[in-house]
Amino acid sequence: MRVVIAGGHGQIALKLEALLAARGDSAAGLIRNPEHAADLRAIGAEPVELDLESATVEQVVAALAGADAVVFAAGAGGKAASDGSDRKDNVDRGAAALLADAAERAGVRRYLMISSYGAAVAPRDGYGESFAAYLRAKGEADADLSRRDLDWTILRPVTLTNDEPAGLVTLAERVEPTKIPRADVAAVLLALLDTPGTARQTIELTGGQTPVAEAVAKIAQ
């Protein structure tokens, strides 16, 4: 399997790329900063320099040549941009839509979206404007993807940690939010790539008591 991952130097993306490479699959990570290329090569992934904030759809189509699936792991995050730019809309919504446009043109049907817990509802009172903007952008990106004729899966993890992976999760349409290690999110993404029956579902993810493979198999249609 060849998987192209937008936001290829992100923490979850690097873990997913390492998992793919370790089992002999091909992982290509789209990166903005050429200085990040060595990190991808070190784990067996292929760096592809491409800025999704300025790239044309034709350039993204070219980057998807030979891909079996794409994963959107890019994001501006919930913190305010130091330069005041509207990167949450540009990245979390705009770049996700650009990748979907390119996937449609390239004939790459499988699209995994890393969204966020809370993207389905209006931001709560008390959220900072930056985080509220992030959730709105994620929600709009999810809505756009769900209308497309692609084999999409939208994954909405809860608060992320850098703890060691537990290998135990809860996957459901709605979950009680706790926390989950980024490594477990990457393991779930890998299992989703292997499970076509999870297409056209929006799933929330948190830590739990069910092994990853079993949890993914349970939600497959």
Q: Tally the helices: what do you get?
A: 7
Tell me the series of helices and strands, N- to C-terminal: EHEHEHEHEHEEEEHEEH
How much of the residues is beta strand, in percent?
15-25%
Rough shape? globular
- Using the CA coordinates, give the radius of gyration: 16 Å
The biggest beta sheet reads:
9 strands, mixed
Average of per-residue pLDDT values: 92
Strand order of the largest sheet: 3-2-1-4-5-6-10-8-11
Overall helicity: 25-40%
How many strand segments? 11
Distance between the termini: 22 Å
Given helix and strand content, the structural type is: alpha/beta
Low-confidence stretches: 78-85
Protein traits:
two-stranded parallel sheet, globular, nine-stranded mixed sheet, 221 residues, 11 strands, alpha/beta
Give a topology summary:
Layout: E1 2-6, H1 11-22, E2 26-31, H2 37-42, E3 46-49, H3 57-63, E4 69-72, H4 87-106, E5 110-114, H5 129-146, E6 151-157, E7 159-161, E8 168-172, E9 179-181, H6 182-193, E10 201-207, E11 210-211, H7 212-219
Parallel strand pairs: 1-2, 1-4, 2-3, 4-5, 5-6, 6-10, 7-9
Antiparallel strand pairs: 8-10, 8-11
Helix pairs in contact: 1-6, 3-4, 4-5
